[in-house]
Specification:
single chain, 305 residues, alpha+beta, Ribosomal Protein S5, domain 2, lpxc deacetylase, domain 1, five-stranded mixed β-sheet, 7 helices, globular, disordered C terminus
């Protein structure tokens, strides 16, 4: 129930999946109420960027924080792991434009951060309680968040590819289940889209080492899939990373259909623009709060862990 940070500094080096550039990411412990911040060390005299719904820039093919030169791309997997491990406060210094993709999942970040160690701070966590449904829709794609006693995600993806087709998952968050069942799920792409992405300046660092690649009929990675439904599990990894930009642990059910980073960000923005749809409470006050005060439907008593 206390805010957490890293026990010590740790350095991570890898390739950006879209930029193709080698980058070094240094994660530093941070004080309570700092939040997650990114600082570009390759640029002079630029401010750090707080990981927040309000600082999100581009959301096509990845989630970017900041705008223009002072921006950091593909932050979603790292943010998802920080949320999954309950880490609230970190300064992320990076000497390039994009967080390293590692193996295309969050597994490497989980391993590194657990080895580094996590420590409690002397300040209570705050929880983001959803009080009424909020929904956004673009065409046939939509995302919704509803009241719930903890973070619960129900996601559906639909692809015409014979390996993927339609996949659906229900995932009620716990740290252990996140590590085991979600963090290891890799990003994926279709071979036929690679040239188009590269013409747009994307996927320059993509390979079979950091992405599931499919031709018209099958998975090309020699090792195959880590889970039969790895594709939808990776969607949940992305949802957690994007929704973590609300800044607090979340009590709410998120339902997505064919969604992506843009819809996730639109959902968060609409939620914040609907003041009676949420309440932020301190962990230290949860035992004293009543259902009437929280205005939650009967039976929805906040639980976290």
């Amino acid at each position: 129930m206390y805010q957490r940070t890293l026990a010590k500094r740790v350095s991570i080096t890898g390739i950006g999946i879209h930029s193709g550039k080698k980058v070094t990411l240094v994660l530093h412990p941070a004080e309570a109420n700092t939040g997650i911040r990114f600082r570009r060390t390759d640029l002079e005299n630029v401010p750090s960027i707080r990981a927040s719904v309000k600082t999100v820039g581009a959301t096509e093919n990845n989630t970017t924080l900041g705008d223009g030169e002072n921006s950091v791309h593909t932050v979603e997997h790292l943010l998802s792991v920080l949320y999954g491990l309950g880490i609230d406060n970190v300064l992320c210094e990076i000497d390039g434009p994009e967080v390293p993709i590692m193996d295309g999942s969050g597994a490497s970040f989980v391993y590194i951060l657990k080895e580094t160690g996590i420590t409690n701070l002397g300040a209570s966590k705050k929880f983001f309680l959803v009080l009424k449904p909020v929904r956004v829709q673009v065409g046939d794609k939509w995302a919704e968040i509803r009241p719930d006693s903890s973070l619960n995600i129900e996601s559906t993806i639909v692809f015409s590819h014979p390996v993927i087709q339609s996949q659906k998952i229900n995932f009620r968050f716990s740290c252990e289940d996140f590590i085991t069942n979600i963090s290891r799920a890799r990003t994926f792409g279709l071979l036929k889209d690679v040239d188009k992405l590269k013409r747009r300046g994307l996927a320059k660092g993509g390979s079979l080492d950091n992405c599931i690649v499919l031709d018209d009929f099958k998975v090309l990675n020699p090792e195959g899939l880590r889970f039969e439904d790895e594709f939808i599990r990776h969607k949940v990894l992305d949802v957690i990373g994007d929704i973590s930009l609300l800044g607090h642990d979340i009590a709410g059910k998120i339902i997505t259909y064919k969604s992506g980073h843009n819809l996730h960000n639109l959902l968060c923005k609409k939620l914040l623009d609907t003041p009676d749809a949420y309440e932020i409470v301190s962990a230290s006050s949860l035992e004293q709060e009543t259902l009437e005060t929280l205005r939650l439907p009967p039976g929805l008593i906040p639980s976290f862990g």
